C-alpha cells in the first residue's frame, strides 16, 4: 500500500500530532500531504515547538485544527496517537494505524521545565522511530 496523504490524530492537536506532522513533513517531503488534527483542538504546545527545533524542524507556523475540518476523501492513511485517553474517530475510508504514545503534556506543577522537555523528547523520539519503520516498510 502507498499513501499520498497522512493524517495524524489525537485529542488536543497540541503535542503528539503536531510533532508527528512536523517530523513526517521533514522525512517525506512534498510528495506526501501531511496533516494533523484533534477532536478537541487547543493550541500548539511550546514544548513541542522546542523539541522539534532541537532536531532542526520548525513548527512555529502550525496551529491546532479540528478533525471536523478535514475532508475524509483527502486522507489515505490516518494514524491515531492516543495512549491513555479516548482517541478521536475519523470517518472515512482511510487505512488506519494506531501508535499509542503517552501524552507528554502535563499540568503537574511539580514538573520542572527540564522534566517536561524530557517527556516531550521521549514522545518525539517514539514518533520518529515509528515513522522510520513506516517508511522502511514502504507503506509510505
Model description:
There is one protein chain. The longest helix is centred in the last third of the chain and has 24 residues, at 113-136. The chain has helices at residues 16-28, 46-53, 113-136; strands at 5-10, 33-38, 77-80, 95-98. It is globular and about 45 Å long. Strand 1 (5-10), helix 1 (16-28) and strand 2 (33-38) form a beta-alpha-beta unit. A 4-stranded parallel sheet has the order 2-1-3-4, covered by helices on one side. With 140 residues, the protein is of the alpha/beta class. The model has no long low-confidence stretch (mean pLDDT 92). It is built from 3 helices and 4 strands, in the order E-H-E-H-E-E-H.
What's the short version?
This protein is of the alpha/beta class. The chain contains three helices and four strands; from the N terminus they run βαβαββα.
Architecture blueprint of SSEs:
Layout: E1 5-10, H1 16-28, E2 33-38, H2 46-53, E3 77-80, E4 95-98, H3 113-136
Parallel strand pairs: 1-2, 1-3, 3-4
Mean pLDDT score, rounded? 92
* Helix coverage percent: 25-40%
Compute the gyration radius: what is it? Answer: 14 Å
**Largest beta sheet: strand ordering:** 2-1-3-4
Strand-pairing-aware structural class: alpha/beta
Give the ordered list of helices and strands: EHEHEEH
Distance between the termini: 8 Å
| Quaternary state of the chains | single chain
Rough shape?
globular
Could you tell me the strand content as a percent range?
5-15%
Q: What is the overall number of helices?
A: 3
How does the major sheet shape up?
4 strands, parallel
Strand runs, count: 4
Uncertain segments: none
